[in-house]
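Hello again,

I reread your note about wanting to compare the complex against the isolated chains. To keep things tidy I'm splitting this into two emails, and this first one only covers the full assembly. Below are the input lines as submitted, including protein chains and any nucleic acid or small-molecule components. They are followed by the predicted structure of everything together. The single-chain runs will come separately.
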Amino acid sequence: MKLSTKARYGMRAMLDLALHRDRVPISLKDIAERQQISLAYLEQIIAPLVAAGLIRSLRGPKGGIWLDRSADQVTLKEIFQTLEGSLAPVECVENPQFCSRADLCVTREVWDRIKEAMASVLESTTLQDLVDLQKKKNGSERLMYYI
Amino acid sequence: MKLSTKARYGMRAMLDLALHRDRVPISLKDIAERQQISLAYLEQIIAPLVAAGLIRSLRGPKGGIWLDRSADQVTLKEIFQTLEGSLAPVECVENPQFCSRADLCVTREVWDRIKEAMASVLESTTLQDLVDLQKKKNGSERLMYYI
DNA sequence: TACAATGTTTATTATAATAGTCGACAATAA
DNA sequence: TTATTGTCGACTATTATAATAAACATTGTA
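Full-complex prediction:
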């Protein structure tokens, strides 16, 4: 049960945005270079985040993207769900009619608990928490991330 | 991030075994029928559980499989890991050298927390817990599961 | 106004994983 | 001895993933 690269890269891209809030749009090209993701692929990852209203964008020279809210108002759950869909590890958790056994099956309860455990982590963490973690972690290596 | 059918079916098969502890081997055919899984596919799911020592087996007439331990001694984590591999949602959590950014990347911390949250649920639940849940849930429908 | 620099959208593709099926084989109780 | 079980390996169809690429739309600036 592995995460897709879209969710992995997308989370990195969102953190990159949060770390570079300079009141100017950040170009996809810059993010792609810093995060070592191909520009073309990054475009595909950013698109749903724009559609979900987490990111805003502007085309043209000096264009780019930026967070629509302050980092402490964006939970990782929103990002995750936008890129990966439901948190449920099996379809029947959200969609009982997916399996005819759903109403009798107690393994479903297990998968639901896992969903809730994941939700708890992702709801309680914001982009700002990641920013703080990053700053704390970098210490002297800060320059790598801020220049 | 969805579970494979192997883990889904395998968890059901293990619960089926725990519910039918009658001191006799249970045939794969019976489990396949009750759980609505093809026999051929179920064989593939059972094999790693036997290899992991969770299940024992006997061939021939009246042969079948059974739990090697009592249900309260089998955590769901063991079953999950046997069928699905690591709990880590991204490779770098277990294998830092998977990604060159691993030591600086704080999204990795998020994925690790998710892994731990899942582990917590799966470690703290045993097959016996599922058996109890099932009995409680079934009530009058018990017969469906016990005959 | 022209144009270069950006984001947007859609199509296409290669690779791998999933979810099985099938057939030959091995062991064993009756 | 034989029918009944589990074991093992090969095979296959379908789908998802992880991209690449090309054409297009917008916009700041010279």
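For quick reference: The mean pLDDT of chain B is 94.

B.
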